[in-house]
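> example.struct
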């Protein structure tokens, strides 16, 4: 669908000043349809991928052709693939070797022989981003990333996990069998680790460069975890300026109505919560937080068409 920049309102997020608010519908087509034929079939194994149309829109709006785009927690490599398809150079960092392999497979699947020229994927910790980037440190135009958060422990191995054991190495809904993965951290430990990563992002960007994060507020035991507010607060703490907020709508717009794209798992969780008496409902959006190194004005680029190749 056509990409129309919309900034009619402002929003206030925890600890932040009012900033422009936009709404992007990015799920007119299902996630599976957006990936079909463009991503390696093994892509389904990663449990927390960004919608390709969202990654594509962020890259198109917030970077120019030829720019250097980085995702320090690259997962299946969605940001990298979409950035390369839009003529940007892309570098990713990922902690888990199997997702590094997957990101490389995805890049090769869609870019063919251009993949080596346009996309680099490093195995490593995002906190070491500056060292991993080498000569590119301080030259990055856009960092586009979705941080891991509050991974659910797969049902298969929950008992073992609760006893202090490891996760079973079978494929679960987790990113990782490694307790050190940020997706398993909570509370202060999570905040400290993410603050370190946002500080590394700050150093990696060029002056005026943008950090664009994608987060989803979750509910746990009836309470909302305001990950959007927390992310802005952590980024501001290390020097970023909060420029804009986008609501990425995970619902199709059909004849004036919103049709949610809840997964079977989300539907089940919501039914269970309601059965417990919790006033649960589906969250049908993600928050996109746009932050800058320094205090530049927000200039968006004329977005290229967001349709799949
Ligand atoms: C939400 S997923 C990112 C998904 C990605 N945007 C995509 O579309 O595929 C977060 C990723 O961060 C990775 N991760 C967790 N801790 C990390 C760390 N310290 N450094 C780098 N990557 C990490 C996880 O393994 C996971 O793949």
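> example.seq
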């Amino acid at each position: 669908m056509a990409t129309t920049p919309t900034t009619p309102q402002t929003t206030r997020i925890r600890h932040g000043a009012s900033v422009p608010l936009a709404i992007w519908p990015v799920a007119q087509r299902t996630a599976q349809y957006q990936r079909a034929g463009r991503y390696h079939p093994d892509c389904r194994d990663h449990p927390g991928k960004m919608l390709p149309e969202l990654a594509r829109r962020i890259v198109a709006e917030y970077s120019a052709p030829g720019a250097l785009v980085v995702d320090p927690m690259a997962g299946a490599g969605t940001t990298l693939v979409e950035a390369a398809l839009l003529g940007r150079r892309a570098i990713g960092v990922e902690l888990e070797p199997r997702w590094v392999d997957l990101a490389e497979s995805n890049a090769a699947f869609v870019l063919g022989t251009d993949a080596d020229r346009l996309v680099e994927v490093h195995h490593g910790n995002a906190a070491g981003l500056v060292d991993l980037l080498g000569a590119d440190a301080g030259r990055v135009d856009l960092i586009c990333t979705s941080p891991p958060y509050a991974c659910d422990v797969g049902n298969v191995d929950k008992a073992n996990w609760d006893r202090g054991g490891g996760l079973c190495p079978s494929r679960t809904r987790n990113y990782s069998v490694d307790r050190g993965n940020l997706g398993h951290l909570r509370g202060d430990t999570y905040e400290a680790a993410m603050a370190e990563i946002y500080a590394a992002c700050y150093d990696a960007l060029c002056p005026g460069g943008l950090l664009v994060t994608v987060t989803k507020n979750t509910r746990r035991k009836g309470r909302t975890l305001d990950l959007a507010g927390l992310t802005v607060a952590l980024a501001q703490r290390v020097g970023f300026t909060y420029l804009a907020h986008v609501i990425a709508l995970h619902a199709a717009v059909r004849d004036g109505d919103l049709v949610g794209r809840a997964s079977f798992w989300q539907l089940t969780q919501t039914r269970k919560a309601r059965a417990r008496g919790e006033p649960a409902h589906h969250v049908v959006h993600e928050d996109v937080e746009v932050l800058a190194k320094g205090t530049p004005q927000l200039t968006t680029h004329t977005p290229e068409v967001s349709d799949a190749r």
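> remarks
The chain has one domain: 9-150+186-293.
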